[in-house]
Design goal:
elongated; 453 residues; 15 helices; 20 strands; six-stranded mixed sheet
Length: 453
């Protein structure tokens, strides 16, 4: 996606005009520009393409917007403008505000297409700003690509290769435990969920950064395809379950962004990667599993598998006593019912961290919303035969009860943030095409940057 971005000081000028200032602006323009706009069908909205009066070549583009604070004001220009390289006119703040939206709007998942649509490019003269925009565009493009890739080509072994390549690129360390090694190393729930697939379950572990830096651990749900297990999903619910590794895609993309920006932290990324399939050895409703932490969990529903693979990874995440654990998961439909698909919900054990993440999200136009860890609902996870069940006895408050399940595997002294994300755009918006999406990673990155940089 960063192919849409160029480090250059040349390009067709691209100016943004506030709609409420348009009339005054028009009166200040040369006669040729006024006549051209008056006679070329310009309706005082959208785009105005003005040619050079002598050569006829495109000389300047004007985009009419309602607010200069609209992060996505340039989000559809990469596909609407004629192919060429454009240069946003104005102060650095305006370029910072609009450039990333321009680039993200040109994203196209083209891995399985013979033809790729040619798009406009954006030139940025400032080298530092160019690098910042490129890093963010590359990270979001990576998350989108991972989610959009068909499950047959994005199984646990493929996620492992992506993380291994990241470790090589940024001089990190990568380790993985595969198949029965998970039992030997005491990751029973990850093994249980993934054992029915011919694509062996894995725990992927990437480490990066100076040993004396503050440790931040990211955990991502990597269910590469979710059939629902023996409690099979209906076909409509299964159609897009290639995106059930969206949590893994988020933490991998966030890790790439952190490492590319060289934040002064020590990073660990844990991804339990499985396929929730059906075969003769699939786990069953009513089974009981002893988790890595020692908590006995009764399986109420095999389609509540994400929290099962996460709980062992979260237990492992405690070992190094990190300053903060952040997990991302496409965990519950209930969170989408509560907040819709475009606003990711999150839970947090510390109010100051939660407030800072929400503030960061607003400042970078990547909004997130905190939901409550309402302990009164914990009793819905009670089991008659084990310490707890993996699924609540009521459909109400499903995002909360799922978070409360995960909270049982977090030490009270460890700050923890849990994101429940859609990882998918159901509708096309400027800068956000239909398909895989990264939600909340820019908010978290901005929070980490403010806290540690």
């Amino acid at each position: 996606m960063s192919a849409l971005l160029r480090h250059t000081s040349s390009g067709i000028p691209l100016s943004f005009i506030l709609k409420n200032e348009l009339t005054d602006w028009l009166t200040q323009q040369p006669t040729f520009v006024q006549n051209w706009l008056a006679n070329s069908g310009f309706e005082k909205q959208g785009l105005a393409l003005v040619p050079n009066p002598e050569t006829g070549e495109l000389n300047h583009v004007y985009c009419i917007i309602r607010s200069s604070d609209d992060f996505w004001a340039a989000g559809d220009l990469a596909t609407k403008l004629p192919v060429g390289c454009y240069q946003i006119q104005g102060e650095k703040h305006l370029i910072e505000q609009l450039a990333l939206g321009f680039v993200l709007g040109g994203y196209e998942f083209s891995e399985y297409k013979e033809k790729v649509t040619a798009k406009a490019q954006l030139g940025i003269a400032d080298k530092t700003l160019y690098e910042q925009i490129k890093q963010q565009a590359d990270a979001i493009g990576l998350a989108r690509d991972l989610v959009n890739t068909p499950a047959a080509d994005m199984m646990p072994q493929h996620l492992a290769q992506v993380m291994s390549d990241l470790a090589d690129t940024f001089d990190g360390d990568f380790t993985q435990w595969i198949g029965d090694e998970l039992l030997e190393q005491n990751y029973p729930t990850i093994h249980m969920v993934g054992r029915a697939s011919e694509n062996k379950p894995r725990l992927l572990d990437l480490k990066w950064g100076a040993k004396d830096a503050p440790l931040i651990t990211l955990v991502g749900k990597g269910v590469c395809f979710d059939s629902g297990g023996l409690d099979l999903k209906p076909s409509a619910g299964m159609r897009n379950m290639k995106k059930d590794m969206g949590g893994a895609a988020h933490v991998i993309a966030l890790a790439q962004l952190i490492m590319a920006a060289n934040l002064p932290i020590r990073l660990r990324v844990l991804v339990p990667a499985v396929e929730n399939a059906v075969s003769r050895n699939a786990f069953r409703p009513g089974d009981v599993v002893k988790t890595r932490k020692g908590i006995m969990v009764e399986i109420d529903n095999t389609d509540a598998e994400g929290r099962l693979v996460l709980c062992d990874a979260l237990s492992e995440a405690q070992n190094d006593e990190p300053e903060l654990i952040i997990d991302f998961a496409t965990l519950t439909g209930a969170c989408r019912v509560a907040l819709g698909t475009e606003l990711p919900g999150f839970f947090c054990t510390e109010r100051t961290i939660a407030n800072s993440i929400m503030d960061a999200g607003l400042s970078v136009s990547d909004p997130v919303w905190q939901l409550p860890l309402f302990d009164q609902y914990k009793s819905f996870l009670n089991s008659d035969v084990a310490d707890m069940a993996n699924c609540a006895s009521t459909p109400f408050g499903g995002a909360i009860t799922a978070a409360l399940y995960l909270k049982e595997f977090i030490e009270p002294t460890t700050p923890w943030v849990h994101f429940d994300v859609m990882a998918w755009n159901l509708r096309a918006l400027p800068g956000r095409p239909v398909g895989g999406e990264a939600l909340g990673i820019r908010a978290v990155f901005d929070y980490l940057q403010n806290r540690f940089n």
